[in-house]
UniProtKB/TrEMBL annotation:
This is Interleukin-22 receptor subunit alpha-2. Residues 108-212 form the Interferon/interleukin receptor domain. Residues 6-96 form the Fibronectin type-III domain. Belongs to the type II cytokine receptor family. Keywords: Disulfide bond, Receptor, Repeat, Secreted, Signal. GO terms for cellular component: extracellular region; plasma membrane. The gene is Il22ra2. Pfam families: Interfer-bind, Tissue_fac. It comes from the Eukaryota. It comes from Eulacestoma nigropectus (wattled ploughbill). Signal peptide: none annotated. GO terms for molecular function: cytokine receptor activity.
Length: 214
């Protein structure tokens, strides 16, 4: 019995955490500290805060993976959720490991906008597209993150003659099409952009670079 108890403790999943980008939400965990724990299988449950019953997540029931997609299960974005995971190995089951409370609207990270760059001889026109959520309208088109938050866009320009790392903020606001004027012909410029959520005071990562030579 003692050996079983040791195995139970040593395969118990660690660091059960929600990760969420644009409401694409996954539960992550690390295997228990025992070396044998690498061969364990995992069982995932979730519930809304305040509910007494846990729901099984069928796709992550007896899975060897250390990640479980709960996007669909956490679609009521104002509700707080919990996730929990237990492991099994050699007929022994660990206790459940619980996540912290997770509220999608508060905690999802909003991604950067999609950036398109069109140049003329002395200016660059930047076109931005808000990131999409996984949720769809009745007609099937994906709902953008501007439905859920008031978003501002930050545009930075990198003059490759000066310094790769030197990003200058040239615009912050809601416009989706921005013209940057008075640039030097023959110079290579790159544009990166971020999304800023004022209500949560949170900024996205940088978008991928879009570069052009005037």
């Amino acid at each position: 019995v003692l050996e079983n108890q040791d195995l139970q403790d040593s395969i118990k999943p660690r660091k059960v955490e929600f990760h969420s980008l644009n409401f694409n939400t996954t539960l992550h965990w690390q295997p228990g500290w025992a070396r044998e724990a690498r061969g364990a299988l995992y069982f995932v449950q979730y519930k809304v805060y305040g509910q007494s019953m846990w729901q099984n997540k069928d796709d992550c029931w007896g899975t060897p993976s250390h990640v479980c997609d709960l996007t669909h299960e956490t679609s009521d974005i104002q509700e707080p959720y919990y996730g929990r995971v237990r492991a099994t190995l050699a007929g022994v089951y660990s206790n459940w490991s619980l996540s912290c409370r997770f509220t999608p609207w508060r905690e999802t990270m909003v991604g950067p906008p999609m950036v398109t760059v069109v140049h003329s001889n002395k200016s660059i026109t930047v076109k931005l597209q808000a990131p999409h959520s996984p949720y769809k309208r009745k007609r099937g088109s994906k709902i953008t993150m501007t439905n859920y938050y008031d978003l501002l866009y930050q545009i930075f320009i990198i003059n490759n003659l000066l310094d790769e790392q030197h990003r200058v903020l040239v615009y912050e606001g809601k416009d989706k099409v921005i013209k940057i004027q008075d640039l030097r012909p023959g110079v290579s410029y790159c544009i990166v952009a971020k999304t800023y959520v004022p209500m949560l005071d949170r900024t996205s990562a940088y978008s991928s670079r879009q570069c052009t030579v005037l």
